[in-house]
Amino acid sequence: MNKQENKILSKKDHRKAALKCSFIGSNNINYGTLQGTGYAWAIHDTLRKLYPDDEDFKKAMEVEYEYFNTTPYVIPLILGADIAMQEQEGIESLEAVRSIKTSLMGPLAGVGDSILWVLYPTIMGSIGGYLALEGNPLGAIIWIILNVLLVFLRLKFYDIGYKSGIRLVTDLAEKLNVFTDAASVMGLTVVGSLIATAIKVYTGIEFKFGDVTLNLQEQIFDAILPAFLPVLLVIGVYWLMEKKKVGFLKIIIGLLILCLIASYFGILTVAP
Fold it and tell me: Which residues cross the membrane (predicted)?
């Protein structure tokens, strides 16, 4: 029997599984199986249709309830491959399904975390935030539209997983690594430029030598390295978070207190 003859699921069944996985599937997390229960919930209705026999259904669900953890955005990719195998091979595919889930969640997490979990919100959020700071409503509109597009991306990932499955990682692993490296370079470039343009830190310190006044900001920093203080601030925050493991909330409160004190004594000032 060929694959086409083994089609059991309708387009509605596939869309339902993809939507459940995209909106809720990764939100049900526990310390035992992490995303396992959410994944099982997303695939539950599909497996019920594939396995009318209760015993077969229980065996399949036991596999789906096992430990699972990867980037939420790419879960539909694995779900699609999982469903395709069970639709084709039935209960005989369970060991292969277990292997596919275990082998794919690591590599896809590496790609998904770096591109969709870190670089994408960092780059797009920075651009949207910068526009918002300039009073442009497009900043918020762009951010909302891009997040809506991510939902459609998840649905597309399901279709790709159902049609391609493991081949996406095995055949295209090299290209995925190149794409990840290129995206990392682009992300660092964007973040680096935003440090100089979006972060505003100025000092009001002046030195007087007789009748001569030396403004530290205008005559030293702006002449040599205009974004010196913003870069220094970012390095300090990074050091606290990465090396000292200080929480971001403590850092925000600390920066507010520091700015108030420094402003009161004239160490920091508004933009000249």
Answer: 108-132, 138-157, 178-203, 223-241, 248-271
Q: How confident is the model at residue 4, as a pLDDT?
A: 41
- Cα 40–Cα 44–Cα 48 angle in degrees, nearest 5: 145
What are the residue ranges spanned by the domains of the chain? 11-196, 201-269
Record the tokens describing residue 32, joined without a space: 């035992």
Q: How many CB atoms lie within 10 A of CB 263?
A: 13
What pLDDT sits at residue 58? 95
- Tell me the C-alpha distance between 193 and 29, whole Å: 37
How far apart are the two ends of the chain, measured CA to CA in Å? 77
Mean pLDDT of the region 74-89: 89
Give the pLDDT confidence score for residue 2 in this predicted structure.
37
Phi and psi based region of residue 34 (left: phi greater than 0; alpha: psi -120 to 50; beta: remaining): left
For residue 67, CA distances in Å to 105, 117, 151, 156, 255 come to 11, 21, 24, 25, 40
pTM: 0.65
What is the C-alpha to C-alpha distance for residues 61 and 48, in angstroms, rounded to an integer?
9
